[in-house]
Amino acid sequence: MGKPTGFMEISRKESGYRPVHERIGDFGEVEQTLNDDDRKAQASRCMDCGVPFCHWGCPVGSKIPEWQDAIYHGKYKEAFDILTSTNTFPEFTGRVCPAPCEKSCVLNIHNEPVTIRENEASVIEKAFQMGFVEPRIPEIRSGKKVAVIGSGPAGLSAADMLNQLGHTVTVYEADDAIGGLLRYGIPDFKLNKGIIDRRQKIMEAEGIAFVVNTKVGVDIQKEELLKKYDAVCLAIGAMKPRDLEVEGRNMEGIYFAMEYLKQQNKKIRGIKIAENQRILATGKDVLVIGGGDTGSDCVGTAIRQKANSVTQIEIMPKPPKQRIENNPWPYWPNTLRTSSSHLEGCERRWALATKRIISKNGKVTGAEVVSVEWVKGADGRMSMNEVPGSNHVIKAELILLSMGFVSPEHEGLLNDLKLEYDPRGNVKTDVQTSQSSIEKVFACGDSQRGASLVVHAIASGRQTAQNIDNYLMNK
User: Fold this and answer.
1) Which pLDDT band holds residue 361 (cuts at 50, 70, 90)?
2) 217 in helix, strand or coil?
3) What's this model's pTM, rounded to 2 decimal places?
4) Going from the N-terminus, what domains does the chain have, and what CATH number goes with each?
5) Which listed residue, 94, 107, 251, 402, has the most CB atoms within 10 A of its CB?
6) CA-to-CA distance for 123 and 114, rounded, in angstroms?
7) Cβ distance 44 to 10 under 8 Å?
């Protein structure tokens, strides 16, 4: 603990965002950075608690007090070594993680947690600048070959650890570039894709092979896959979106959020998209249905496309600004979250259910919504009741559905493998081994647990890699 009184002398200071009028004109990253002195001062606020709840709250078990102390003393190599001992890709989590560590930080009792996420991003960027991040080429190979299907955060973390354990790893990606959700699901203004490319070069130098534009189950049949590899790791995500089953759903102008975000990311990447297939918010009133992070990403994208207006609605009631009695620290706070996109000009509304889509000549013109009330029953469950006479229409020429994801896509590889699914439709795996109903097939990330955070995916990939290694070595 470098400065025992740091948390009493120094207030929390965030790097903040680029000015709104500037950032909405491009897709560059919106978040700014602190200078070295300010960053060290923020790191000094870590109290090195007797019980580090930040460590408990972090899915990858980051040893946060230790690398905060290293930052404070300017020991960036030490900070980098400690940070990466549990987190494969801090350059990703340092940008897009909602930071459960900060929510459980002891200083968050007073709403002044350590800037852990920003400090994490600063450590890895310093490490790249100072040449600490170098290819780690395994000295010994096991002779075992593993296929990782999917190159999102779970697949990449599994591939990285399997490679370090000495196995020969091939990562298959159906799209034209690796990254999965990181590449095409998260906008560039939150995660510049050069960050992914930079990491890919290192992983390739370490011996990992990446095969893109290849859909396993179509371009490579399951028989070939199971014959060629000693183990298979499924990291295909949970990309089946929750649909809106209402009258008018099939009208022109309604898209899933991921269709919209992926297309814009491809456009920025330089991929040509036919004008008649382009999903554009320019000059339109946009309605985003769903109040989560993906919906927020749609808001920021629509604003940058110069939408006339953007409205985001959520079926749940508006969260409180502060924790309520039954939601104490250090648990995740069920409070109102405001993203950088929301600050750019968006109307947010809560407790609204969509009744039907309104259209003219086959094109969307709006959505009829109704206010709802949530009531707790005798069994403790919440039920939704419509408020009589509250029906009204929200004008919209573009409607984006961002209501979460149901499960991994079953059609294709998963059904061909005849895998078992859990009650939620995810790949059923053994809790201890990550093994599916087929002996040599394992699963990790969202395909195993359902849609979740990037940091959960990284943790899952690492754990599954260890389980695959145990399987291969015992075999």
Assistant:
1) very high
2) coil
3) 0.96
4) 6-129 (1.10.1060.10), 145-239+406-474 (3.50.50.60), 243-403 (3.50.50.60)
5) 402
6) 15
7) yes
